[in-house]
Write a structure and sequence with these properties.
single chain, about 350 residues, alpha/beta, Rossmann fold, Dehydroquinate synthase-like, alpha domain, 2 domains, two-stranded antiparallel sheet, 13 helices, 11 strands, globular, binds glycine
């Protein structure tokens, strides 16, 4: 009997149709599960590090499909820029891609956002198939249709909602992730439990060891349940007019820390982990959340090998100053996602004096 979990498909309805999220091991080399989603000219957009590991298997799976091309970009957040976006459009033009063309985004959140935005803008929108190769992208970035590039003045300032035609999450691609990148992805997994799914949170508490060891069955269950949680939120609020903002739990503090550390020393998931601890501590200080529950969140984050404290030198004052610049602030008030129960998020306008209590 094979211990490899079966291939799962989770259908996510959206305003323009529905998106199957196909999950399983070795999916890249099993095109029978996804090749039917490709139409017209196909452009694979990826980056060097991912290409080294996963491009050949994907190209072999595509076989000798006509009018197929590859664009390999440099790795890293700095690739999510206007010039790289323009280079994807240039390649589509040079291929003679028409409105039936398909972009395949093979990579992590940077490639997914960039290739997704190129697909959203080329000829007013062509199909994108997201093939996420990081845990973070499989549980968050590739799901729900947000696409964006950075403007010199800020992250994700230029973007569009553009639901993928399909998401193909090959769990075998996670094998090449470093321990640090893998654990950073677990921060977003924990987030789903903390904001909306106490049963999942408790399951994670009971599975810290198999999760740390990347047990295939445990990992697939964790990814599936994360996707189901994200689906629940984006189906209700595709355009982030309300509940979708709950997904930013830990992110306002986290973005501030990432910006202060110049997107260098902290992984996004690490910054979010610290941000969730701060947001839970603040929830508790404000009398919304029992202290024991804030502690449970911190304990789980630590058990999964993630940081729970901001790096030395990044205290309340610096973080609050940076939070003021967050594009999600309204009327100069910082709107924070807090917890009023473990497994239940609320959004609350929060004064700077209150925020200092998180530290
Ligand atoms: N990553 C947050 C969202 O998709 O809304």
């Amino acid at each position: 009997m094979s211990l490899t979990p079966a291939i799962d498909t989770i259908e996510i309805p959206h305003s323009a149709g529905h998106c199957p999220v196909i999950l399983g091991r070795d999916l890249l080399t099993q095109p029978q599960h996804w090749a039917h989603t490709l139409t017209g000219a196909v452009l694979v957009v990826t980056e060097q590090t991912v290409a080294e590991h996963h491009l050949k298997p994907l190209m072999d799976a595509l076989g000798n499909r006509a009018n197929t091309d590859v664009l390999v970009l440099p790795p890293g957040e700095s690739t999510k820029n206007i010039a790289a976006w323009s280079s994807v459009l240039d390649r589509l033009v040079s291929m003679g891609a028409m409105r039936d063309a398909t972009v395949i985004a093979l990579g992590g959140g940077v490639i997914g956002d960039l290739a997704g935005f190129a697909a959203a803008s080329y000829m007013r929108g062509i199909a994108v198939i997201q093939m996420p190769t990081t845990l973070l992208a499989q549980v968050d970035a590739a799901i729900g249709g947000k696409t964006a590039i950075n403007h010199p003045q800020g992250k994700n300032l230029i973007g569009a909602f553009h639901a993928p035609r399909a998401v193909v999450s090959d769990l075998a691609t996670l094998d090449t992730l470093s321990d640090r990148h893998y654990r950073a992805g677990l921060a977003e997994v924990i987030k789903y439990g903390a904001i909306g799914d106490i049963a999942f949170f408790e399951w994670l508490e009971s599975r810290t060891q198999p999760l740390s060891q990347r047990d295939p069955e445990t990992l697939q269950t964790a990814i599936r349940q994360s996707v189901i949680n994200k689906k629940t939120v984006v189906v209700e609020d595709e355009r982030e007019t309300g509940r979708r903002a709950h997904l930013n739990f830990g992110h306002t503090f986290g973005h501030a820390l990432e910006a202060l550390t110049e997107y260098g020393s902290l992984e996004h998931g690490e910054a979010v982990a610290i941000g969730m601890v701060l947001a839970a501590r603040l929830s508790s200080e404000l009398g919304l959340l029992h202290q024991d529950q804030a502690q449970r969140l911190s304990t789980l984050i630590e058990a999964l090998g993630l940081p729970t404290e901001a790096p030395a030198g990044y205290g309340a004052q610096k973080i609050i100053e940076r939070m003021r610049l967050d594009k999600k602030n309204k009327d100069n008030t910082i709107h924070l996602v807090l917890l009023d129960d473990l497994g239940h998020a609320v959004i609350r306008p929060t004064s700077e004096a209150e925020i200092t209590q998180a530290f």
